[in-house]
Every structure is written in C-alpha cells, then in structure tokens.
C-alpha cells in the first residue's frame, strides 16, 4: 500500500481527498460524517456575514441518460451565524485531529474585517484558510468573491491583509472567470499566499425551460447566472492548473478542483501539478461514500505503477505540457480499423466524411461490409477513434519512424 | 366431455392471461433505451426493415423529446407502424440486425420504442400527413389489410381519391382479426385505419367484391385497382372426421378471441392444434391462456422444420404446450363431436391422442379463384397473383400486393408492397416516378 499522506503547504492530511467548500461542508456534523467515510480534509462552507439564500438554487445539465454532468448554483456563502460555525469547527477539529479542517473565508473588502474574521477563526484550531476570491454569483455583486479574484491587485492586497494576522497556511481560491489564470495566481503568490486552489465555479446559465420560457433555476419567474461545476468543467480546470504548474515563476502548491469524480480524475489533477484535490459535485450527486473507491483506486494505481507515495506523482505530467509551437510536426499517426472488434455501426465513416477528412471507405470481407481507412487521406486527427463505441476497433498507429522530429518553432527558425 | 364448450376461467384471470406480453415502455424506460442507441450511419436495422423505416432517426427523436417527429418518421415509411411495433418478428428483422447485439448481446428494443412513439401519436391524434391536392384520379382498393391500408395512404398523399372495399365489418384485415390478442388488441389496427380515413380515404365496409359489388363495376369506376385480399381460409386436412363438431380453423378461433367475448370462444378441455407455423403457435398459446387443461401441438415433421419463429416456439414451450413432432394426423375420431386424433408416428405406429377440440393451422389457401375468376388476372403455379416490380398484374390497370402476391409473409412485407404499388400506380397513370420513405430499398 502506497503512502497517501500529504503535507499540502503545511496542512497535513491522511489522503489528498478534500471536500470543497460547498453544501457538503455546511456544518460540523456533515464534515464529521465525511471524515468517518474517509475524506482526508474538508474546506468549510465559506464563513462571513450570514446571508439570505433564495429557493430554488441549483440546476443540472444532463447528457442523454447521464444526469448532472454539469451543475450550477446560485447559493451564497453560509447562512449560519459565525459563532455557531466556529464552535462546530473547534469541536470537529478536536474530534478529528488528523483530518485537515480548512476555513473558507469571505468578508467585505476592508482590512479590519479580514483581520477580525481571520483571528476569530484561527482560534478554532483549524489547519488553514482558503480565501474565497472565486464565487461568481451574488457575492460578486456585493464586491466580494470573484470581484476580488478578477482583479489581481485586489487579490494581492487582501491576501496581504490576511497574511498579516494568519498563523496558519493561507490558500487563495481562484476564479476561472478570467481571460488568463496566471496574473491572479501570481498576485496570490505575491501577496504571500502559501497555496492556491482552483477552479471555483464558472459563470453559466444552465438552460431555459422551453415551456415556461424561464431559465433554470427558476426563482419566481426570474433567473440569474450561476456557478458551473461538475464533470463538464474538468478540462477547463485541468488547463488552468497546468498553466500555473508549468510557469517557472509560480512556485506555491496547487489544490485542484473541478469535475473530480473518481481516483482517475484525481490522478490526472495531481499529474498536472495538484498537491491535493477538492471534490463537491460528485458528493452532492452520490454522497460521501464515493471517497472509498477514490482511496482504494488511488492506492491500487500507485502500487501498480510502483509509486510508494502519492506525492511522487504530483506534477509528473507537467513537463509534457508545452506550447503548440513545440509539438513535433513530423509525428505521423493513422487510424486503423480492427475488424475483429468492429461492430459496423459506421459512426467512424460518417464522422470522418462530414466532420473530418473523408478518409473512410467501405469494403467487404467474406460478404460483410466494414469501414476502412484510406491512409493517404487520413490526417491522424483521432475523431474516428473518439466516436467509436467498440473498444479496440480503431487504433491510431504510428507511421513515421521518429528519426526526424521538428517543431513549428524549429521549422520557422531554420527558414 | 364438457357441456359448456368454453373457457372455465373467470374473466379476471383471462384478462390477466391475455395482458400485453410486451408492455408499453414508461417514459423513463423509453428515454434510457433511446439513449442507448448508437445512431449508426447507414444502419443495419433500417436495412433489415422491409419498409425501410429510418430507425436511428426515430429513436433519436424519442431521445430529444420530439415524439411527433419520431412517429412521423415511422408512419412515413410504414402506415401500419403501430401494428408492426407489436407484431413484427423484430428478432429476425431490425433487432436481429442491431449492432448492439454485437457489442452487448442486447439489441436496442426497437419494436417497443416504435410502439412508444406511435402510441404517442395515436393518443395525440393530430394528423401526421396531409392528403395531396386532388389530381382528379381515383383508385379502388380491395381489402383493408396491411397492403390495402398502406397503398391507400400513399395514394391519398399523392392526391388520389381512394375507395377501399372491405368484406368484413371492420377494417385492418389480419391486423384486426388475426393477431394474437396478447400481442395486439384490435384498437391499434383500427386506429391505423382511422389515420387512413382522415387522409380522405373512403371505406366501404361489409362489401365483398364479387358478392356485393362486381369487379367490373370497380374496374370501370376507377382509374386503377389495387388488390390486397390476402389469403383464404385454412386448408383442409383431407382426412376422415374433419366435419366433426369441435374441429375448427385456427383463424376462426383467433378471430373469435379478438372479440374478447371470452365465454363465446369455442374451447375444449383437451385441445390438439395441427401445424407448427406462427398461426399454430397463436392458437396453442391462446387456447392455453383461455384455460384449456392440455394443449398439444401436432406436427408431421421435425421441430427444426417447424415454420414458426424460434421465439414463438419458445413462447409455446413456456406456456406449457406439449409437442408431438413427426406425428401425422390420419383421422379425427368421434361421434358427432371430436374424441380423439389418430396419428401415425415416425416409426409407423398409430397413436390416438385424446382431445375434444382440433384446431387446424396448416396454412391458408391461396385466393387463386378470386384472381382468375373475379379479377381475371394471372396467377402462378402456387396460386399467387403474378405482379411485376410495380406490383402490376397481367391487367395493366390492376395492381396487387401483400399475402395474395407473396404467398403469405409478415404485415410489414405487405405494407411495403402496398407502398410500392402506390408508386407503381402513380407511375402507370402519370409517368412520374415518386419516392416515399423506404421505397428505394
């Protein structure tokens, strides 16, 4: 069994799986049940001046039979009194000394206000702070959340305020609702943050009820944009994590968030530089119990690959991410149909015909019609393999001998 | 010997026994199943459908919540798509060809999805097609079974004035009178006939050509005639005792059941059904479901030779039917009423199978005399009316299709022939070659 313990920017946790600040971490009793289920840490639902929420608050994106591949919400930060949350936090930390309890914070943009909540909260014995500079709805209209995270100067300034009084690690949670993630990430680092976490939710309108004509979620005939999360946002999150991880001037730990459902997702985030991962939507869908397979699957993966510690995989794929201009122009793959696995649905054919490079034709083998790749036409785009429902029926096969790699940068430099 | 030669069961039990063998999908089931469809390109299911229904298209429309559009895709290629959803041998047609069978050993439930979409359209009631602008021509259609309804539909869509002449009191032919009740009740077929009627097609029911109205009269009144009269009554056994009480034709037996007047369906306590085709299966299963104590299927050849589909044989087996293969009936015994069936077994011995009812299901007679003597068109040596690729008979103004032309096949085959006949009639009268969904097969 590999060692799953992590020390994330000074925050110790028995495994890298944390609950993100969200409804599953609304109160002490919930977090304690989550720790019992196996979660290594939890970021408490954001503390601040209690707010009033609306009903309804959530909307889901379905794909065919798959429910909620995306979720959006217009819920705000905690609606519970600060002192109640703090008392429960202190109790929780006492009962679960080995689990990471992180307090998410959001108050108005005043130095004294931040100082006060930091001081009061760290008295609970919690392990760290996460500054919520990402919430894209509601709170941002009041100058908080994403309104902070979208302006690097504010991000830096507030981080500095917090660091003036914080005695425990400070994580800055970044919003993805920016053109480029590096400036706010570096601003957090410059402000003294011990780590960042990302991504927070993405601005979104989930859809429109085509009968009532009101978008979702419907609040008495009106709707507001909400924060988008879940499986569907994972690629966006992975990109932003890797953008920070591969920047030479960015050197603080990253907690990865966005569409993590399984140990596989977690491994991908960690390979691209995340030292811990945070989960919300999958738990909202299936409950705390999902962490069991996350731990089990991660352990088995690490054992199978010969890693003795989960920390050994952090950032292992960062070096493989580069700019387009560095990719080898002479690398050459072609699609190949393996008839023994082909079920003759012809999805490869139509996808290539109408969506790619007309590189398929039909041919008969023993009276049975199969699709076949016309290699001279195939550009190796992968589309046929992506649409193929039968594992192994289409493989991408290398045709160059690797002897002459040349990137666009190299090619243009030599001209 | 029972005095009351009918079902011993109470009505509740009978209704239960005759309940839908393949119940309607719920919305959740239909959505799940529709989403499972891969949406194949140039799909094998469509190729396997005799009417060429664009199966992936109608299934994806279910998935997208466009049920009206889904039903239109189905009925566009097959005007009796609701009946076919229930009675088609999908195992050997669309579902048998489904690639999911290759991937998961579980084909998409195309038949049940087709029913889901067509049920919606029937309940919704809005017409899916409009009749064409009148072209001033008229066609007489003899027989309102699958072939006749299909031909009438396409002709009406092309602008023809269509009159259907049906000898029975209700339209639909075998879809109305000949399908096992647990597969399809009459209202489905009647609703399909209703769709045809809403296209402006006139139905003259209880009107037998050659009895109530002369063929020549029709020939003179219309620009063209389509004949879809199907097949005749069950063939004779040609053995002694065939005239005894308690010996009936399977089609007659099934027709009685279709009335759902359960107490008036003649039923023995011990029933012997002769034949092993799909009609024989419909007879044995329904005799059993109606409460016969024992039901035996008697067939002169081996199980492998039985013309019934494998899944039909399986159904009979599940219903507890006793099979007597390589057993040839030689005499029906009895005194006024059947008491037994004397048969010769494979080894040449004679056995007497005790029974008080014999149901004959050895295939229907051809309608050769109707074609030769009433319509005056050529038949082949098997008694089938001869048609060319336009479904045109030896009389250029007379077209035919369905069982009377192919010798007896599925409703879906008859439907396709009706479609091709409509195209053939239009071509013959106007010189224009039109296409309908699935006509290019």
Oligomer: heterodimer
The first-level CATH class of the largest domain in chain B is given as Alpha Beta
What is the structural class of chain A? alpha/beta
Lateral arrangement of strands in the main beta sheet of chain A: 3-4-7-8-9-10-13-14
CATH architectural designation of the largest domain in chain A? Alpha-Beta Barrel
Helix content of chain B: 25-40%
Strand portion of chain B, in percent? 5-15%
Name the average pLDDT of chain B. Answer: 95
Number of helices of chain A: 13
The CATH H-level superfamily of the largest domain in chain B is FAD/NAD(P)-binding domain
Description:
The complex is a heterodimer of chains A (about 425) and B (about 450). By secondary structure, chain A is α/β, with parallel strands linked by helices. Chain A folds into two domains: about 5-320, TIM Barrel (Alpha-Beta Barrel), CATH 3.20.20; about 325-415, Alpha-Beta Plaits. In chain A, about 30% of the residues lie in helices and about 20% in strands. Chain A is built from 13 helices and 18 strands. Chain A has helices at about 30-35, 80-95, 110-120, 145-150, 150-165, 180-190, 235-245, 265-270, 280-285, 290-305, 345-355, 385, 410-415, and strands at about 5-10, 10-15, 15-20, 40-45, 60-65, 65-75, 100-105, 130, 170-175, 195-200, 200-205, 225-230, 255, 275-280, 335, 360-365, 370-375, 395-400. In chain A, the strands form five sheets. In chain A, strands 3-4-7-8-9-10-13-14 form an eight-stranded parallel β-barrel, surrounded by eight helices. Chain A has a four-stranded antiparallel sheet with strand order 5-6-12-11, with no helix packed on it. In chain A, strand 9, helix 6 (about 180-190) and strand 10 (about 195-200) form a beta-alpha-beta unit. In chain A, helix 1 packs parallel to helix 2 (about 80-95), helix 3 (about 110-120) packs across helix 5 (about 150-165) and helix 5 (about 150-165) runs parallel beside helix 6 (about 180-190). The longest helix of chain A has 15 residues, at about 290-305. The termini of chain A are far apart. Chain B is α/β, with parallel strands linked by helices and about 450 residues long. Chain B folds into three domains: about 15-125, Fumarate Reductase Iron-sulfur Protein, Chain B, domain 2; about 140-230 and about 365-430, FAD/NAD(P)-binding domain; about 235-360, FAD/NAD(P)-binding domain (3-Layer(bba) Sandwich), CATH 3.50.50. Chain B has 19 helices and 13 strands. In chain B, strands 3-2-1-4-13 form a five-stranded parallel sheet, sandwiched between helices. Chain B has a five-stranded parallel sheet with strand order 5-12-6-7-8. Chain B is globular. The mean pLDDT of chain B is about 95. At the A-B interface, helix 11 of A face helix 2 and helix 8 of B.
């Amino acid at each position: 069994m590999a060692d799953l313990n992590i020390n994330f920017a000074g925050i110790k946790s028995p495994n890298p799986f944390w609950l993100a600040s969200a409804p599953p971490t609304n109160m002490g009793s919930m977090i304690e049940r989550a720790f019992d289920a196996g979660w290594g840490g939890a970021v408490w639902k954001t503390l601040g001046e209690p707010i009033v929420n609306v009903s309804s608050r959530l909307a889901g994106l379905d794909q065919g039979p798959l429910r909620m591949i995306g979720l959006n919400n217009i819920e705000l930060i905690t609606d519970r009194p600060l002192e109640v949350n703090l008392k429960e936090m202190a109790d929780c930390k006492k009962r679960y000394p080995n689990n990471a309890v992180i307090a998410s914070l959001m108050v108005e943009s005043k130095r004294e206000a931040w100082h006060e909540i930091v001081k009061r909260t760290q008295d609970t014995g919690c392990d760290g702070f996460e500054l919520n500079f990402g919430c894209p709805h509601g709170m941002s209209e009041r100058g908080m959340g994403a309104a902070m995270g979208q302006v690097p100067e504010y991000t830096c300034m507030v981080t500095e305020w917090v660091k003036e009084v914080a005695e425990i690690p400070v994580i800055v949670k970044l919003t993805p609702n920016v053109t480029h993630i590096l400036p706010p990430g570096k601003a957090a680092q410059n402000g003294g943050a011990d780590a960042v976490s990302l991504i927070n939710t993405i601005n979104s309108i989930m859809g429109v009820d085509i009968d009532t004509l009101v978008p979702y979620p419907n609040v008495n005939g009106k709707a507001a944009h909400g924060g988008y999360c879940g499986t569907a946002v994972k690629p966006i999150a992975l990109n932003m994590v890797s953008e920070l991880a591969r920047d030479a001037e960015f050197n603080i730990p990253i907690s990865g968030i966005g569409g993590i459902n399984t140990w596989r997702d977690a491994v991908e985030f960690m390979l691209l530089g995340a030292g811990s991962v945070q989960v919300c939507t999958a738990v909202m869908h299936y409950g705390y119990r999902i962490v069991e397979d996350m731990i089990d699957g991660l352990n088995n993966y690490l054992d199978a690959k010969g890693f003795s510690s989960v920390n050994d995989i952090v950032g292992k794929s960062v070096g493989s991410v580069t700019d387009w201009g560095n990719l080898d122009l002479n690398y050459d793959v072609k699609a190949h149909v393996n008839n023994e696995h082909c079920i003759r649905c012809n999805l490869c054919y139509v996808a290539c015909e109408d969506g790619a490079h007309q590189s398929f034709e039909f041919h008969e083998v023993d009276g049975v019609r199969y699709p076949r790749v016309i290699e001279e036409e195939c550009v190796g785009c992968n589309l046929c393999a992506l649409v193929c429902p039968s594992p192994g029926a289409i493989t991408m096969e290398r045709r160059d001998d690797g002897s002459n790699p040349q990137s666009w940068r190299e090619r243009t430099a030599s001209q | 010997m029972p005095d009351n030669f009918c079902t011993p069961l109470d009505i509740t039990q009978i209704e239960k026994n005759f309940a839908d063998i393949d119940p309607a999908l719920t919305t959740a089931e239909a959505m799940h199943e529709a989403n499972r469809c891969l949406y194949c390109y140039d799909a094998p299911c469509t190729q396997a459908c005799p009417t060429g229904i664009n199966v992936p298209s109608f299934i994806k429309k279910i998935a997208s919540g466009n049920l009206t559009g889904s039903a239109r895709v189905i009925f566009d290629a097959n005007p009796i798509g609701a009946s076919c959803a229930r009675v088609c041998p999908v195992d050997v047609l669309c579902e048998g060809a489904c690639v999911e069978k290759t991937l998961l050993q579980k084909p998409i439930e195309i038949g049940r999805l087709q029913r889901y979409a067509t049920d919606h359209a029937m309940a919704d009631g809005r017409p899916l097609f409009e009749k064409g602008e009148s072209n001033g021509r008229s066609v007489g259609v003899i027989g309102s079974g699958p072939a006749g309804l299909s031909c009438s539909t396409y002709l009406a869509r092309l602008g023809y004035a269509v009159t259907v002449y049906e000898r029975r009191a209700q339209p639909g032919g075998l879809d109305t009178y000949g399908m096992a009740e647990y597969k399809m009740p009459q209202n489905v077929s009647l609703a399909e006939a209703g769709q045809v009627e809403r296209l402006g097609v006139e139905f003259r029911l209880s009107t037998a050509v050659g009895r109530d109205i002369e063929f020549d009269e029709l020939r003179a009144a219309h620009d063209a005639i389509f004949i879809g009269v199907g097949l005749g009554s069950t063939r004779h056994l040609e053995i002694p005792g065939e005239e005894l009480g308690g010996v009936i034709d399977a089609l007659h037996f099934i027709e009685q059941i279709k009335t759902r007047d359960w107490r008036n369906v003649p039923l023995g306590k011990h029933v012997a059904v002769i034949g092993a085709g799909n009609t024989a299966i419909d007879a044995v299963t329904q005799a059993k479901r109606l409460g016969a104590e024992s039901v035996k299927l008697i067939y002169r050849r081996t199980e492998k030779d039985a013309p019934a589909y494998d899944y039909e044989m399986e159904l009979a087996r599940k219903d507890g039917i006793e099979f007597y293969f390589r057993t040839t009936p030689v005499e029906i015994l009895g005194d006024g009423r059947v008491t037994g069936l004397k048969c010769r077994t494979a080894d040449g011995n004679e056995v007497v199978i005790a029974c008080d009812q014999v149901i004959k299901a050895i295939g229907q007679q051809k309608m050769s005399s109707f074609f030769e003597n009433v319509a005056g068109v050529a038949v082949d040596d098997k008694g089938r009316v001869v048609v060319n690729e336009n479904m045109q008979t030896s009389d250029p103004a007379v077209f035919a299709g369905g069982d009377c032309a192919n010798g007896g096949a599925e409703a879906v085959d008859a439907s396709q022939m009706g479609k091709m006949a409509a195209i053939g009639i239009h071509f013959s009268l106007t010189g224009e070659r039109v296409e309908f969904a699935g006509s290019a097969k």
